[in-house]
Design a protein that fits this description.
The protein is α+β, with helices and mostly antiparallel strands and 254 residues long. 37% of the residues lie in helices and 39% in strands. A hairpin with a 2-residue loop joins strand 4 and strand 5.
Length: 254
């Protein structure tokens, strides 16, 4: 599975569109970033490539890989060279949902679009030409509807909820289940690895000794966070309904 996933950055580095597309199942989804409108199927994935990959040089700096069931989680930083004077560094969690023939059925990229745009704006005058090219590419390849769909990536849970998610994970890891319970909806979906859990208390028991480490990212309605127990790494994904957590999935090697 890791070898199959590694095919994506290799094809991106070579700017080999056909090889990149061949990594995906016919009905695969790319949601990049999470919160924006997803791209589905070969034709839309082709337009995604032309818009966001072809004009840039993208390098994947991987910190940790996690294989959990049919999912590969990649904790990394994306280095995006948009011109010889504009290079961005984007912290990300990537989730690859795999199928039996080792093709990608879903790629879900968790990174913060507002932070990336702010970083781009901070590059000053050289960023103006890049922004203009990006706008032309968006409108040309995605049309107005796709451009609006991409802009949905600016919406999300906000910085306050992102901080609360990190605090919740720290509280659960410290064993304080009672104070954590009020953060969840009445019937949350909870998973640790491939195990389904019945309550926040059970989740807390499985998270005992784990603590946030490294990046926390808010993309769409999901906050993702790198965790460690001092020996291994995990990625937790908390989905919000309003201000409360409706699901938690903790991806660990399993």
């Amino acid at each position: 599975m890791l070898a199959a996933v590694d095919g994506s950055p290799a094809a991106v580095a070579d700017h080999d569109k056909e090889r990149w597309l061949s990594l995906f199942a016919p009905t695969a989804v790319v949601n990049d970033p999470v919160g924006s409108a997803p791209h589905r199927g070969g034709a839309q994935l082709s337009r995604f490539y032309d818009t966001f990959i072809a004009p840039n040089t993208v390098r994947f700096h991987v910190d940790h890989d996690i294989v959990c069931g049919d999912d590969v989680l990649r904790d990394l930083t994306l280095e995006i060279e948009m011109s010889d004077r504009v290079t961005l560094s984007v912290p990300a969690h990537l989730r690859y949902a795999m199928i039996a023939d080792m093709r990608i059925d879903g790629l879900y990229a968790h990174w913060e679009l507002p932070a990336m745009v702010a970083q781009l704006a901070g590059k000053g005058l050289p960023a103006a030409a890049v922004s203009g090219r990006l706008t032309v590419g968006l409108l040309g390849n995605q049309r107005l509807g796709g451009t609006v769909g991409f802009a949905r990536g600016f919406l999300g849970v906000g910085g306050r909820t992102k901080r609360r998610a990190g605090e919740l994970l720290a509280v659960l890891g410290a064993g304080d289940h009672a104070n954590a319970a009020g953060e969840f909806t009445d019937d949350p979906t909870l998973r640790f690895g491939e195990e389904t859990l019945n309550s926040p208390a059970e989740l807390g028991a499985r998270l005992a000794g784990w603590r946030p480490a490294g990046k926390t990212i808010a993309a769409g309605r999901i906050v993702s966070a790198t965790l460690t127990d001092g020996q291994s790494y995990a990625v937790a994904m908390l989905e919000y309904s309003g201000r409360r957590v409706s699901s938690v999935s903790v991806f660990v090697d399993c």
